[in-house]
Amino acid sequence: MEFTKSFEISPSTFVANVRLNVSSVERSLYFYQDLLGFQLIGKPSDDNAILSPIGSNYKNHLLQLSRVDTPHREIKGEHSAIRQAGLYHFAILLPSRRHLANVFKHLTENSNELRFEGAADHLVSESLYLRDPDSNGVEIYRDRNQSEWKRTGQFQVEMKTDHLNLERLLREADTQIEWCMPANTVIGHVHLHVSDLIKSRNFYSEILGLHHTCSYPGANFFAADSYHHHIATNSWLGNDIANADPTQPGLDHFSLNLKSKEYFEELLHQLERMKIEVLTDDSNKINKKSFFILDPDKIKIQIYYQ
């Protein structure tokens, strides 16, 4: 299949999971399992753990933790002294506002064990922000109904960062529900530090085929369909930052599920035509439906279908 225009990725594509390099699997398990309520569904070794929402399985896991033997380096968002491309935050999308209220209630009850960084109303969604033990940014959010979103174009949507009324949110918590990360929870999006917004926009839009949905000062947002965003990029650390380093605590890679063999093969053709190197993973013994690529800042992305 020839491409007369830029490739357009499958509308059913979504961020399937995130793999984090951590300095201590046990410490991270306490955060993600005991405090955030994920379910441990696999521990292939002392250095790896697989997590999912309640009632899910290994195939549909959302998070993998892998230990790396490097000194722990504390990163504090855009004001970090370590100016390197990689994860700004990954975002956990909950099924409803009630679930978000329950999360917030749970977080407030464990606030002495968390780095809770704030909250925001983005018009399309409502979000809570915190950091894990390795200072990885974690957003937990719920979407408003798409009928409430303000469209500025076919794929463009208005987003802002406004105050979120946390007192009102807390009043909506259901005290009868036992705490856990609920079924139907997914990875909603990933937000990345990059060195060059133009190069990153070309990669995620023209090469990967995502729609450019919104811009902030110093940031761009991309989605596979009419969603507000599956991937965001920002240059808030500056334009002279180092490439991503997979040997350090932080993002190892995130995975995009194309849902279709046809789109998978079309994207392979697109990457070959654009001379983008495709990487294989010798540890992937499941099937041949997966490959890896690097974005302009060497951030690793897994592409697969199932």
In short:
The chain is an alpha+beta fold and 306 residues long. It contains five helices and 15 strands. Strand 6 (115-121) and strand 7 (125-131) form a beta hairpin.
Helix count?
A: 5
Share of helical residues: 10-25%
CATH top level label: Alpha Beta
Whole-angstrom Rg: 19 Å
- Indicate the low-confidence ranges by residue numbers: 1-5, 75-80
Q: What number is the mean pLDDT? A: 89
Strand order of the largest sheet: 6-7-8-5-9-12-11-10
Number of domains: 1
Percent range for β-strand residues: 25-35%
Describe the structure.
- By secondary structure, the protein is α+β, with helices and mostly antiparallel strands.
- It has helices at 25-35, 97-109, 166-171, 197-207, 261-273; strands spanning 14-22, 39-45, 48-52, 63-67, 86-93, 115-121, 125-131, 137-143, 186-193, 211-216, 219-223, 231-234, 250-257, 290-294, 300-304.
- The longest helix is centred in the middle third of the chain and has 13 residues, at 97-109.
- The protein starts with 13 loop residues before the first strand and ends with a strand.
- The model is unreliable at 1-5 and 75-80 (pLDDT under 50).
Detail the topology: elements first, then pairings:
Elements: E1 14-22, H1 25-35, E2 39-45, E3 48-52, E4 63-67, E5 86-93, H2 97-109, E6 115-121, E7 125-131, E8 137-143, H3 166-171, E9 186-193, H4 197-207, E10 211-216, E11 219-223, E12 231-234, E13 250-257, H5 261-273, E14 290-294, E15 300-304
Parallel strand pairs: 1-4, 5-8, 9-12, 13-15
Antiparallel strand pairs: 1-13, 2-3, 3-4, 5-9, 6-7, 7-8, 10-11, 11-12, 14-15
